[in-house]
Specification:
With 248 residues, the protein is α/β, with parallel strands linked by helices. The protein contains seven helices and ten strands. Bound molecules: 2-phosphoglycolic acid.
Length: 248
């Protein structure tokens, strides 16, 4: 695992966007590997990265015609049209603004009647594209990766997850009131994240300092889900000074 500490959130976004742009530009589709497969997060942290990707698309530096995406998670019980669903977020911040074909976008269905069938099919879909090439992720204040809350097994695949009080509290800033925040979600598992060929975690702001410290400096434990990335041979935490504060 590598750790980079940059000056501020803009530098974090620009470094990560540059790497993604370079990977998209240099990707040469073949019959065996027609698509570059990206795993994508939602949340506040990746928004500046998405802005730079959209800009690069508008400047004709990249096209998403050979990109397939898998989002990390979705709230259970929110329809795609709900303005706090991650379907909606992705449409507003990225997919609606670039040339990715609709059928190359994958997001878990929070309204699925049979949750376990939905989760199983998602894993199969990821496998059918040969796995995730680059998984982009944020990190929760409690060390969660996607919605894998502390205590989730490192062996977990895509599953339904009950959200912790902390996550509900933190995410309530996007809802009118705390009671409106869904109490569970569908999420890719920690094994799903770990199996990605490369994992890039974005962490900005002092609120993430403790989670980053526990993830990169403390022993690997399921109590801090992101700590599993210490064992990943191609993972990197890209932090700003605030998030990297405790590492100095
Ligand atoms: P944030 O969320 O980017 O909004 O801080 C990150 C996360 O909870 O994984």
């Amino acid at each position: 695992m590598k750790v980079l500490i940059l000056k501020n959130a803009d530098e974090v976004a620009s470094l990560v966007a540059s790497e993604l742009i370079e990977r998209i530009q240099s990707f040469k589709p073949t019959d065996q590997k027609p698509f570059l497969v990206l795993g994508l997060p939602t949340g506040s942290t990746p928004i500046p990265v998405y802005k730079l990707l959209v800009q690069a698309y508008q400047n004709k530096e990249i096209s998403f015609k050979n990109v397939v995406t898998f989002n990390m998670d979705e709230y259970k019980g929110l329809a795609a049209e709900h303005n706090q669903s991650y379907h909606y977020f992705m449409q507003e911040n990225l997919f609606g603004l670039i040339d990715i074909p609709r059928n190359q976008i994958h997001i878990l269905d929070g309204m699925a009647k049979d949750t376990s069938a939905e989760c199983k099919a998602y894993e199969e879909k990821i496998a059918s594209f040969g796995g995730i090439d680059i998984q982009l992720a944020g990190i929760g204040e409690n060390g969660h990766l996607a919605f894998n809350e502390p205590g989730t097994s490192f062996q977990s695949l895509t599953h339904e997850q009950k959200l912790t009080e902390n996550t509900i509290e933190v995410n309530s800033r996007f809802f009118e009131k705390k009671e409106d925040v869904p109490t569970s979600a569908l999420t890719i598992g920690l094994k799903t994240v770990f199996e990605a060929k490369k994992v890039i975690v974005l962490a900005t702001g002092e609120k993430k300092a403790e989670a980053v410290y526990k993830s990169v400096r403390m022993p690997v434990t399921e109590n801090c889900p992101a700590s599993i990335l210490q064992e990943h041979e191609n993972s990197v935490f890209v932090c700003d000074e605030g998030a990297g504060k405790k590492l100095k």
